[in-house]
Structures are given as C-alpha cells and as structure tokens.
Amino acid sequence: MIEEFKKNGVTHIITIPDSETNYLYELMEKDPSLDIIPVAREGETMSTALGLNIAGKVPVCLIQNTGMMEAGDSIRGMALDAGFPLVMVIGYRGWTRHGVVNDTAAKYTEPFLHAFGINYYLVETDDDGSRISSAFEEARATKRPVVVLIGDEYHGFNR
Amino acid sequence: MIEATDVFEAFLPHRGDAIVSATGTAGSHWRDFSTNTSRDISLGGAMGHTTPAAFGLAMGLPDEKVVVFDAEGSLLMNLGVLATIAGKKPANFYHFLLDNGCYATTGGQPVPNSQEINYAGMAREAGYASTYEFDDLEELVTNLESIMQETGPVFVAIKVFAEVQNLPIALRTRRPSRSRMETIVDLQNEIGISAE
Q: How many other C-beta atoms are found inside a 10 Å radius of the C-beta of residue A158?
C-alpha cells in the first residue's frame, strides 16, 4: 500500500484509524515522505484534501466504509463537485467475499458508491496492489474521486 | 457586538498577502472590502467544510498565511476540526469566527445554546496556539495587528450583529461572483501552482 502511495506521488494521508488499518498506520508514521493528518470526523478528509489539492499536493483519504457514509455531503460538495482527482482508500468492514453479510456497513457500501456514481476497485491481497495505481490513474484522468475498497485487514509484516 | 463590515474594514490593513476565505452571511461582505481578489478563495460547497479546506490549503502552502472567516453554525457542524487543526499546529493559519448566534440565511433561528457557548474557550482547550474573543470594535482594532503577527494556529471569535434573511431563496437577489473553481484557478495562477 505504501509503495503504491509513493509510486503515485502521494504527499498527505488524511485519516481516521479503523480496526483494519493499525499496522498500516504504524508503517505510514515511519515514512518521512508521507505527512499523516489525523482528523476528527471522516467528512473532514475530503475537504482537507481539496485544500491540499489546490495547493498542488497529492492527498489520499483513508477511512472506513462507515465513515464514508457519514461523510456523504462532504463527498458531494468537496469531492464530486470539486474538479480534482482524489483517491479514497476505504476499509470495507463486513466484506465477506460474496458470503453471508451480517454487517450493514458492508451491505450499503457498494450501493452508496453506485448512488454517487463513484467508481471503485476492490483490493483483497497483495496481488491486487496494481489496482491502487489504476485508481490513481483514473482519478487523474477524470478529476473525480475514485475509491479503493480494502477487503482485508492490513497485515503487520514485522509481527 | 460588532458589524461584520466593521470587522473587515479593521482587518484589511493587516491582511498583507494572506489568502482569505470567508463563509456565512457575515462573511459575504468580504468581497466589498478585498483589494486583492486573486488571493481570495471560495471554499464553500458543504456546510461545515470551509474551515477544513482552508486548513488543508494552509498545510499545503506553509509559506503563505491562510485566513478563514468561519461562521458559528458552520463550525458547530464540524466541531472536531478544532482538534484536527490544533493537532497539526499550522503556524500560518488564522481562524476567525464571525458569531452572530443564529442561522441568518434560513430566517435567524438560534444555533444551539448560542447565548452560552464559548468558542474561543473550546479552541483554547483544543490546543490552538492562541485564542481571542471580541465583542467591542475598538478592542478588536487595537489587537488585530499583533494577532496577524502571531504564530498560528490562532483563533479569534468575534460577536457580530445578525443580518437575518427572511425572503424565500427564489426571491433573493444574487450578486454576481466568481465560481469556486474560478477563485481556485485565480489563486493558483497568483501563487504559481500548476493545475496538472
């Protein structure tokens, strides 16, 4: 994930930690090329990203699907209407790979993205990593938000 | 209480090259005072999100002063941003709050607990570098020069008179203004930021 960020020139990670991203957070903190901006509520990630985009930086929003849904108006007014590329990396809490879904956060995630017309890529393993760059390419080409859904926990390589 | 127009008249001599974003009913008067519109930027689009966007701009342009004129209804919708801003401590960020105690655009309904809330207190306890509160124009005028020389993030809460709008939206006169993207492009050209 971090290598994909660096490959795509990411400068800032705007984030609220979730149950899937602890190990990723630790690695990001150690990387001097990434400025982590912790926020208090997920909607701030899109508006903060707009300011950073205007400034010529490359931000990424890193939040959970629950927070993505909370952030609906910010996604509308500060991302979809903004005219800037934006990759949003979204933890797919409740994803069961087409199994029985017991978590409504998972149930509503993709319909939410469909309703907003936001395209998304699913990443479940390291082999899917190149999809992250695809998301960046699409975001740059369309100047719209593109989502990367993370369908698994980030694994700590040093644990 | 202070007229919003008096706030901007007092602020103008101390603006320097600061990038300024203003939101809310009171903030709309800034366009009548600004003498450097290429450094004015519209960051509205979702209520409560002008200030985080201005914060992002400040984080991305650490050598530029960034001033946001916020409104209390907007701040209350995204109150956690005080912690966010205090946590990153942008030295170039100046957060003014024009507090008229109500939602002026929708007919003047009071914001929750408008008579008792202390926004400067909240910013202070969130960890802003310095905070101020004014309800007297003379005191504001006396302090603005030194405030704009301080290391941020600085929070300045100002009690202003409400300008309640009661006309239905369809009947209100809209003044011509640049779109958000136009203000963004003008600022980027002014500062020399490539659009690509």
A: 6
Q: Which of A51, A56, A76 sits opposite B193 (nearest CB)?
A: A56
Q: For B98-117, what is each residue's pLDDT tens digit? A: 999 888 888 889 999 999 99
pTM flag (> 0.90): yes
**Into how many domains does chain B fold?**
1
> Residue A157's pLDDT is what?
35
Side-chain-side CA neighbours of A6 within 13 Å: the count stands at: 9
User: CA of A60, closest CA in chain B: separation in Å?
Assistant: 12
Residue B128 belongs to domain with CATH number = 3.40.50.970
Closest to B148 in 3D by CA, of B193, B94, B189: B94
Of A41, A59, A81, the CB nearest to B80: A41
Average pLDDT of the residues of chain B? 94
Residue B74 with chain A: CB contacts under 8 Å: none
Which residues neighbour B125 within 8 Å (Cβ) at sequence distance 6 or greater?
Answer: none
Indicate the pLDDT class of residue B168, thresholds 50, 70 and 90.
confident
Does B19 reside within a domain?
yes
Residues from chain B that touch A52, judged by Cβ atoms under 8 A, are: 56-57, 59-60
Of A43, A47, A51, the CB nearest to B60: A51
Domain assignment present for B196: no
**B20 neighbors B171 (Cβ within 8 angstroms):** no
Contact flag A55-B61 (C-beta cutoff 8 Å): yes
The ipTM assigned to this model is 0.95
Quote the domain boundaries for residue B52: 4-191
pLDDT tens digit string along A86-104? 999 999 999 988 888 889 9
